[in-house]
Amino acid sequence: MTPLREGAPVTEERLTPATPYPEGDFLFVTDLLTEGEQEQYNNARSFFQSEVRPIAPDYWNRAAFPFELLPKLAAQELSALNTSSHLLSGLIQMEFARADTSISTFFGVHHELVTTAIFELGSDLQRRTLLPDLLALRKIGAFALTEPGHGSDISREMTTTAERVEDGWVLNGAKRWIGNGSFADYVLVWAKDTSDGEIKGFIVEKERPGFNAHVIANKTSVRIVQNADISLVDVRIPFSNWLPGTTSFRDTNTLLRNSRVWVSWQAVGQQLAAFDVARAYALQRHQFGKPIASFQIIQSQLAKIMGNATMSLSLMIQIARLQDSGRLSMDQAALAKANCSEKMRESVALGRAMLGGNGISTDFEMAKIFADAEAIYSYEGSYEVNSLLVGRAVTGISAFV
Fold first, then answer.
1. Any idea which architecture 29-135 has in CATH?
2. CATH fold of the domain at 141-247
3. Residue 18: its pLDDT value, please?
4. Which positions of the chain have pLDDT values less than 70?
5. Are strands 228-238 and 168-178 parallel, antiparallel or unpaired?
6. CB-CB contact of 151 with 159 (8 Å)
7. Domain chopping of the chain, boundaries
8. What pLDDT does residue 381 have?
9. Same-fold call for 29-135 versus 141-247
10. CA distance 397 to 379
């Protein structure tokens, strides 16, 4: 496009962008990656869009899990990204959720919580014997923290107990909303040590007598994830199943902080998923003899979704920088989780409305995206709790009793 001369008339050609942004990378964020990282990012994005997104609606409708996808997912070696930059890791987490939130949640629980906990807090024996199968997705992990009566206050009110006995530990209690819990080979159970009152982590194999897991039915969000109610009745495990790096709940701080960051990246991906579907629909759907993408109100709504997603993404870029420098705090992670999920909720609501009646049918994807956003809004600390953590950070006064 040639520069305008002073006094030149404003033409239709000038107002039409030469290049639209179908991929949603409005600020060219991927330019921040190295050439090698861009290749990893593009490969992961291509896999998610070609192998995950097409199958997700059917499994979501049936509330079933695509076990046949696991070998293909393992072949991507996403777990090896611990050595990469946090920005690359975050962008790939974003693209995973952009393709499907349920399957990205399955992987996040397995890798970001369980595998990482064993790597960072486990013994040399646990790392040597458990990690190879977990990293290759030959074995699956679940993270059992939340209880039927306790979520946000779990660090103070945990009722699941671990009693030290001569040959190991005996666990008793119940857990709820445990992702992957119904089929996981290893469940990382958090329980209060009866001897010192401190919360510690224990590996429980699914075949242990007294361990029972039942799928939670009738969910309206992340339906592919097999959340479970878990009961532990006199479950005996050897002493070596205790993660020695867990001597109190404080030892989970880094783990839970980084998990909040992962879910914040999911919130960005969910917004881009809404943008993808809404933009494609607006270009294809005709009303009054022309595509609805030509209507000012539709363009305004698409611009709002893009604005929300871009602001969320910009925040997450700085969060990644803080992670790389070792300066990220729990309060900053809480700020990211609260604000990205709030923007996400507005974005998916706009997208759903743009599709009208078709927006409530999973045949058009948007209904699934809209519903899955509610899980992101609530897990890894609800919007309200994360907001109160930020409030405490900026006032010095805790709203928690």
1. Orthogonal Bundle (1.10)
2. Butyryl-CoA Dehydrogenase, subunit A; domain 2 (2.40.110)
3. 47
4. 1-22, 24, 80-84, 401
5. antiparallel
6. no
7. 29-135, 141-247, 251-395
8. 87
9. no
10. 24
Q: Which residues contact 303 (CB under 8 A, 6 or more apart)?
A: none
Residues 6+ apart with CB under 8 A from 51: 69, 72
DSSP state, residue 23 = T
Count of all residues that appear for the chain in the document = 401
CATH number of 251-395: 1.20.140.10
pLDDT at 83: 56
Pairing of strands 186-193, 161-165: parallel
CA distance 102 to 222: 5
The upper half-sphere exposure of residue 192, i.e. CA atoms within 13 Å in the direction of its Cβ, equals 16
Average pLDDT, the chain: 92
Task: Identify the pLDDT of residue 82.
Answer: 54
Burial 45-82 (b: 16+ CB within 10 A, else e): bebbeebbbebbbebbeebebbeebbeebeebebbebe
Kindly list the distances between the CA atom of residue 12 and the CA atoms of 4, 17, 21, 296, in Å, as whole numbers in the listed order. 13, 10, 19, 16
Q: What local confidence, expressed as pLDDT, does residue 9 receive?
A: 43
Q: Rounded to whole angstroms, how far apart are CA atoms 55 and 41?
A: 21
- Name the one residue in this structure whose structure tokens are 């933009």: 279
